Amino acid sequence: MSDDKTPAPAGWYPNPDGGQRFWSGSEWLDLPDPDTDGKPKRRIPKKPILIGLAVLVLAGAGGTVAWKVNHDAQVAAQVAAAEEAANRETERVAAEKAEQEKREAAERLSRQLSVAQIESSIETMANEHVDKGMFDGPVLNVSCSPTNGGSTDNLTETTTVFECFVATEDIGDGRMRGYKYHATMNWSTEEFTYGFGAP
After folding, report:
1. Rounded to whole angstroms, how far apart are CA atoms 65 and 73?
2. Which residues neighbour 165 within 8 Å (Cβ) at sequence distance 6 or greater?
3. What pLDDT is attached to residue 53?
4. Residue 5 and residue 155: Cα distance in Å, rounded?
């Protein structure tokens, strides 16, 4: 193993102060830098570059922060708008439901009044039957009830058949004797028919 060091070959090498210098193979020669045409190169100080880079980094970071703040504000506005729209829809549905319940309550009341009208018409007919001698009176009361599980509360029914009882004699203990009548109500047309006898 030899301790001899082979010297670097002759040529241009980078200068630590910037630019290039020439190595002859044994020593450095003071030749003009080929890139400067014999004019000494001006070295750019590193500190302004670092400051410029720091400013750029800070400006970029500031821009990122501003974008993030703006983006978060937009997201918050979208969330608030979605919540407001959902609240308006909930209120609309609740108002619609309340209106529907109001209409249904009015329809049930109307049906109860119609039953009272049916009972009044049958009472008039029963009194005419008493006057004609079909049976002995007086007519004490009239009550009508839907047949076959019908109900005036079931608003999906378009027709309800009623069995009506005309009481003519009180036999005590809350019991009555009388005669059966019937009626059929068409809820769509709000018209009814009625007559003597069971439905």
Report:
1. 12
2. 142, 143, 144, 176, 178, 179, 180, 181
3. 72
4. 111
Q: How many CB atoms lie within 10 A of CB 2?
A: 5
Range of the domain at 39: 8-43
pLDDT digits (tens, 9 = 90+) for 10-21: 888 888 887 888
Q: Tokens standing for 32?
A: 């003009």
Domain count, the chain: 2
Asked whether the beta carbons of 150 and 161 are under 8 A apart, the reply is yes
Largest CA distance in the chain: 154
- Residue 155's contacts (CB-CB under 8 Å, 6 or more residues apart) are 104, 107, 108
Position 121 in a domain: yes
In-domain check, residue 182: yes
CA distance 140 to 198: 19
Positive or negative torsion for Cα 169, 163, 181, 124: positive
- Provide the pLDDT for residue 65: 78
Residue 197's nearest CA partner among 159, 161, 146, 163 is: 163
User: Do the domain assignments include residue 164?
Assistant: yes
SS3 148: coil
Per DSSP, 2 falls in state: -
Does residue 133 belong to any structural domain of this protein? yes
15 contact partners, CB below 8 Å, separation of at least 6? 21, 33
User: Looking at the predicted structure, is the pLDDT value of residue 173 above 60?
Assistant: yes
